[in-house]
Structures are given as structure tokens and as C-alpha cells.
Design brief:
It is built from 16 helices and 18 strands. The strands form four sheets. Strands 1, 2, 9, 10, 11, 12 and 18 form a seven-stranded mixed sheet that branches. A seven-stranded mixed sheet has the order 7-6-14-15-16-13-17. Strand 1, helix 1 and strand 2 form a beta-alpha-beta unit. Helix 1 packs parallel to helix 16 and helix 3 packs antiparallel against helix 4. The chain starts with 7 loop residues before the first strand and ends in a 7-residue tail after the last helix.
Length: about 475
């Protein structure tokens, strides 16, 4: 990494998140000269994790659906030449939900039949609605082209269109169920993409959370293994990677040449420029003619997803249930409150086990862009709130944790330029940001384009790859 800049590259990728690295690898596999530029000191900073007291903590990813060999995630890994070992989360309960109102614990099993059976045992009066809801979720997933392009070919107009029937997750849950506890249970995973149930399109919810009803997967060895595999594949493909390179400007020299200027005064020229950074940050550095004025303003006005406050700790000794992956505290009225102040816990690593307790918080800049004294006071106050909730709701866990560090929305801002947990919020009826700009050869990619999460970020790169093929044949569209 960080060798000499070439005079010109075929492709320059700004940002080294999963979508940026995936795009770089796809371009390199077609024989293009590619360079990746990352403002941080390491690539994939959000996903690389960190270590404290000899224990590694995964950040940014813990589990996902559709990563199996015969699913779209496994297909994308193979297309990229990545030898990624995945392993199923505990099939008897990959999510352990503590239903605080009734005092019960529901362990979410993998597999449609087992899930339906267990839900029906817990909520027998909702049997009919459970079956219809699970059927609807599966039918939507089966009909979404970007989750099924590994099975069949789609025409461009199908593959690049994101359907939205204007129904929110709240709408659909209210149509199917009477139990507020069941609605809260089904909707708690909205914190995993940062948009509340009353605003997320049900279709997108299915693509982010419903995909785990069939199977839930972990990366064997954690995300550091995944990032290392990507690094090796990029090196083998000849991709040059430059860290500590913050892009400050993109200039169009002519129809076939662009210049990316960096904060350190250096420049890189390219034929194609792909931005995987936050869309609002892209607009700040891109040529004004990249979008029509109304589109630029629309993007700048888009809201951010909810933020995360994460408290990291190390278990002094294992819990009785060693197979647990994730746990959540579910209140009876969480669904009605759009899961405000919702807390869940992730367990990872080998003994001593790493624990991450996450509280959903406001991601507004005013909440976290404070003077140092006020920021530290707020950080301490929220951390104590999480510890108190653990002592109240799970005392066995609370007494075994040695706290090691914490991260706030301001921490995330440092690495990924935004305070929200997943960048721009996907709301029902909202037009997605397209990969295309008005400038030929200038593209955007990432979670804002398709969907949050590992799968959404990678899919956005594969869709961009297909769009670039069409673009090179003279089919450039206008944003």
C-alpha cells in the first residue's frame, strides 16, 4: 500500500468500504488499472475492528442472511474470487429476545418451518397471521431481482428498478397481527438498518432482515478475516491502495479524463471515478454539473439513519449459554415507539468472549458535535444508562463484564463521515440514489444506492458493474 502514484489510472475508487473495495476488484478483474483512496490510515476502517487487552472486537458487521453457497452472497464471493468461510449462526436461536413485558425469552430459529412453529407456540392466537406474514416475506424476497441475479438473468430495466408498494413495515405488521409484543419482536431488527418501522418500506425490510428467516450466517473468524481476504484479492489483481488520502475535489478535464485532488496536495488522474463515500460528502467534492440542482438538494436534505452508542466489554467467564450470538431487550410497546432507545447485545470471538452492548440514539449532529467537556459528560451518561439496563435486565451478564471501550456517533463520524449507523435513511416512497451522474464515467456506489448491510453494499457494486458495461457501450443515462 501507498506506493508511487501512477500518472493515470483507468479507475479511481474513493473510499475503501465494502462497496468501494468490491467495485475496485470487479474493475481489476476486467483488466483495468485501479487505485483505491482511503482517508483513514487503514482500509475498511469500520469493518476492520480493533483490539483491547488482547481481545479483538468486530465492528460494523456481525451476521447476515443469504451468505450460503447457493445464495446471492456466496455467489458474489465466488465471482470476486474470495475464499470466505461462513458458518451458520446457532440454528436454535441466532437472536435471543428477552420479552420484558411477559418475562419470556424467544430464541429466533433458522428455517421457515421451525420459525413458524416456534412463533405459533409463543403466540397461538396469531397462527394465521404468522403464516401469511412469513409467506409474504418469502414471496417478496423471491421477487427482488438483486437478491436473485445468481439464479437467473434479468433485463437491465428489471435489475436496476427498486420496487416500492408504499407500505411500511408498520403497515404490514398492523395488517397481520394484534399482539403488540409480536409486532415488537418482528420489528426490532429495524435497528440493524437504522430506519424505524413507521418509515421503512416493507420491501426493503424484507431485503435486510427477512432474508435471515431462512438462514443466518457469520464470517468464520470474524470480519478481520474477510478484510484480509479482500486485501489479498486486491493485491493479486494489481489494485493499488492508498491510505491517509482524503479526496477534496473531482475535476473533469475532458470527456475521458478526471482528476481527483487530495488534502495532502497530491492528485490522481483517471478515466473512470467511482465514489463509495457518503453521498452528501460526494456532492461537496464533485463537479456541480454531476447532478441537476434539484437532485443535489434532494440528497443533501435526506435524513441520516439512527445512531449507535456501543459499549465494548470482555467476559471474565463464559455465560451458561455459550452458543448465543445476539440478544435484545424487547418491550411491549417498542413497536409503537419506533424502537427508540432500543438496546441489543452482540457476542463474538473466542474466550475471553467479546461483548458489545448497543443502544440506538439520535444521530443528529447537534447531539454529538459538542465541546469536549460536554461530549465526555454525555458519553459517560449514556454509558452508565447502558450499564444500568444490563444490571436490571440481565444481571448474570452484567457482573461478568469488564468494560474496555466505547464508541458514539461522533466516533463513527471520524471514520465514515456521518453520525448515523448506516448513512442515509431509506424511507418509504423515497427515490433511491442512482449510481449514475450526469457526467460520463463518474459513478456512486454503496449502501445509499441499494440497501444497508454487507449484502446491500456488495450488490450495489455488482449492479454498478453491469451499469458500467452498458455505459461503455454508449448507454449512459442522466441522473
Amino acid at each position: 500500500m501507498n506506493g508511487e502514484l501512477k500518472e493515470k489510472y483507468d479507475v479511481a475508487v474513493i473510499g475503501s468500504g465494502i462497496s468501494g473495495l468490491t467495485s475496485a476488484l470487479l474493475c481489476a478483474k476486467k483488466g483495468k488499472t485501479v487505485a483505491v483512496f482511503e482517508q483513514s490510515g487503514i482500509i475498511a476502517p469500520l469493518l476492520s475492528g480493533f483490539s483491547r487487552n488482547g481481545v479483538h472486537f468486530d465492528t460494523g458487521f456481525h451476521y447476515s442472511g443469504v451468505l450460503g453457497q447457493d445464495e446471492v452472497g456466496g455467489y458474489m464471493f465466488r465471482q470476486l474470487g474470495l475464499d470466505i468461510a461462513v458458518e451458520p449462526c446457532d440454528s436454535d436461536g441466532y437472536d435471543e429476545m428477552h420479552l420484558l413485558s411477559s418475562g419470556r425469552t424467544f430464541k429466533m430459529p433458522s428455517g421457515r418451518a421451525r420459525l413458524e412453529q416456534k412463533l405459533t407456540e409463543f403466540f397461538p392466537q396469531e397462527k394465521e397471521g404468522i403464516k401469511k406474514y412469513l409467506d409474504l416475506t418469502q414471496n417478496i424476497i423471491n421477487g427482488v431481482p438483486f437478491l436473485n441475479f445468481h439464479k437467473k438473468s434479468f433485463a437491465d430495466e428489471e435489475l436496476f428498478r427498486f420496487f416500492d408498494d408504499k407500505k411500511t413495515l408498520s403497515d404490514v405488521l398492523n395488517e397481520h397481527f394484534k399482539s403488540e409484543e409480536l409486532k415488537s419482536l418482528f420489528s426490532f431488527s429495524s435497528v440493524l438498518y437504522g430506519t424505524p418501522p413507521s418509515e421503512i418500506a416493507f420491501l426493503l425490510h424484507c431485503c435486510c432482515s427477512g432474508i435471515m428467516f431462512d438462514s443466518a450466517w457469520k464470517i468464520k473468524g470474524g470480519m478481520k478475516v474477510f478484510v484480509e481476504a479482500l486485501k489479498k484479492a486486491l493485491r493479486d489483481a494489481g489494485v493499488e491502495i492508498f491510505t491517509n488520502k482524503k479526496a477534496q475535489s473531482i475535476t473533469v478535464e475532458n470527456a475521458d479524463l478526471k482528476t481527483v485532488g487530495f488534502a495532502d496536495g497530491s492528485k490522481a488522474q483517471c478515466r473512470i471515478c467511482i465514489s463509495s463515500i457518503h453521498p452528501k460528502e460526494f456532492i461537496k467534492i464533485a463537479p456541480q454539473e454531476s447532478y441537476r440542482d434539484k437532485n443535489s438538494q434532494r440528497i443533501m436534505n435526506m435524513r441520516e439513519t439512527e445512531g449507535f452508542f456501543a459499549l465494548y466489554g470482555i467476559l471474565k467467564e463464559p455465560l451458561q449459554s455459550e452458543a448465543i450470538n445476539n440478544a435484545a431487550f424487547v418491550n411491549f410497546d417498542d413497536f409503537k415507539k419506533d424502537h427508540k432507545d432500543f438496546m441489543y447485545i452482540n457476542f463474538s470471538g473466542s474466550r475471553p468472549q467479546a461483548v458489545c452492548a448497543v443502544l440506538s440514539v439520535d444521530s443528529d449532529e447537534k447531539s454529538w458535535n459538542l465541546c469536549e467537556k460536554d461530549y465526555q459528560e454525555k458519553k459517560k451518561r449514556v454509558g452508565e444508562k447502558i450499564k444500568a439496563a444490563l444490571r436490571l435486565n440481565w444481571p448474570e451478564l452484567a457482573e461478568k463484564i469488564i468494560y474496555a471501550d466505547s464508541a458514539t456517533p461522533r466516533t463513527f463520524k471520524k471514520y465514515v463521515n456521518y453520525y448515523g449507523s448506516y448513512g442515509i435513511m431509506h424511507s418509504v416512497g423515497q427515490a433511491n440514489i442512482l449510481p449514475l451522474t450526469k457526467i460520463p464515467g463518474l459513478f456512486v456506489v454503496g449502501q445509499a444506492v441499494v440497501a444497508p448491510g454487507l449484502v446491500g453494499a456488495m450488490v450495489s457494486s455488482f449492479l454498478l458493474d453491469k451499469m458500467m458495461q452498458r455505459h461503455e457501450k454508449g448507454g449512459q443515462a442522466v441522473a
